[in-house]
Specification:
- This protein has two domains: 187 residues, Jelly Rolls, CATH 2.60.120; 56 residues, Homeodomain-like (Arc Repressor Mutant, subunit A).
- It is of the alpha+beta class.
- It contains twelve helices and ten strands.
- Helix 9 packs across helix 10.
- The strands form two sheets. It has a six-stranded antiparallel β-sheet. Strands 3-8-5-6 form a four-stranded antiparallel β-sheet.
- The chain is globular, with a radius of gyration of 21 Å.
- It comes from Lysobacter panacisoli.
């Protein structure tokens, strides 16, 4: 007698096959640990062969889908786990603490990362006829369940890398489909809110972008609030709802992360880096650096140099 598998069994089998293919394709494209670019600039792939320490870093807007292993991201005490069942969306630039928690040389952490362009999201919403304002304001970071349609679109983009000549024409279409699947997902309204022009979240996203571009400049909260057509008190409240910190704290984190980047990647001395990002007091810089990164600049840099930032 022939037995026919039930629908859940078929779905489970298909899901396992999709994950296996995604893992194999990422592993093939990442011969060593680190972040690897691809023929399609918005797409990068990550491989890490051992658990990492908690590492503060600045997350830019992107989608992260794990094919193997798992990682956690912590924002203001809230922890988000992303693994083969859950993807992570970063909808605005955010200082986040990340840690790979499951990875071995035999089964490394493998991750698909796709940059998110807010303007592309806005255009997609307009085309779909859903570009209406939403008044809720949520944190600019969330994790959600991977759906079958989303995984299918991701795999088609990965397969496209095998034919580089097709990438310029077809990759943008697949990226658009992937964003559409995310917007259609269980928490897609959060990403949608940040792209709708007349929403509060979109205004905060513009302010975050302005701070990101001008973080070395003196900060005027009143001017920043006016630039996005909000009162100062409302701006403070909404900014913290999206980023979990005040504008001043956000600017301070960006400056400290830039100082760390200069010391790690540019081999700049601690005091030179401090002055470059606007600190006049070496003791204040060392104190605030230790508070954020867990160690004074000199020892933390010595420990972290050459560790991949994922």
């Amino acid at each position: 007698m022939n037995l026919i598998a039930s629908t859940p069994d078929i779905e489970h089998h298909a899901g396992c096959a999709s994950l296996a293919e995604l893992s194999e394709r990422i592993a093939r494209s990442t011969p060593e640990d680190g972040i690897h670019g691809t023929a399609y600039a918005p797409l990068s792939l990550v491989r890490i062969s051992a658990p990492t320490a908690c590492t503060p870093s600045v997350y830019e807007p992107r989608l992260a889908i794990v094919a193997q292993g798992s990682k956690v991201a912590t924002l203001a005490g809230q922890t988000y786990r992303y693994d083969p069942l859950n993807y992570l969306v970063v909808s605005v630039t955010l200082p986040v603490t990340g840690q790979v928690v499951e990875a071995t040389p035999e089964h490394p952490y493998l991750c698909f990362r796709l940059d998110i362009d807010p303007q592309e999201v806005a255009d997609l919403l307009a085309d779909a006829g859903t570009s209406h304002a939403t008044q809720g304001v949520d944190p600019g970071l969330y994790a959600a369940r991977v759906t079958r349609p989303l995984m299918d679109a991701v795999l088609r983009l990965m397969r496209l890398l095998d034919t580089p000549s097709d990438v310029p024409v077809l990759a943008p279409l697949l990226r658009r489909e992937i964003l559409y699947r995310v917007l259609s997902g269980e928490l897609g309204h959060r990403l949608r809110a940040l792209a709708v022009t007349d929403s509060r979240s979109h205004r905060i996203a513009r302010a975050v972008s302005s701070l990101r571009q001008n973080y070395l400049e003196p900060l005027s909260i009143d001017d920043l609030a006016r630039s996005v057509h909000m009162s100062t008190s409302s701006f403070h409240h909404q900014f913290k709802a999206v980023t979990t910190m005040s504008p001043l704290q956000f600017q301070k984190h960006l400056r400290l992360h830039e100082a760390r980047r200069l010391m790690l990647g540019g081999a700049m001395e601690a005091m030179s880096a401090a002055r470059h990002v606007g600190y006049e007091s070496p003791s204040q810089f060392s104190r605030e650096y230790k508070r954020l990164f867990g160690a004074p600049p000199r020892s933390e840099v010595g420990r972290s140099r050459n560790v991949p930032q994922v």
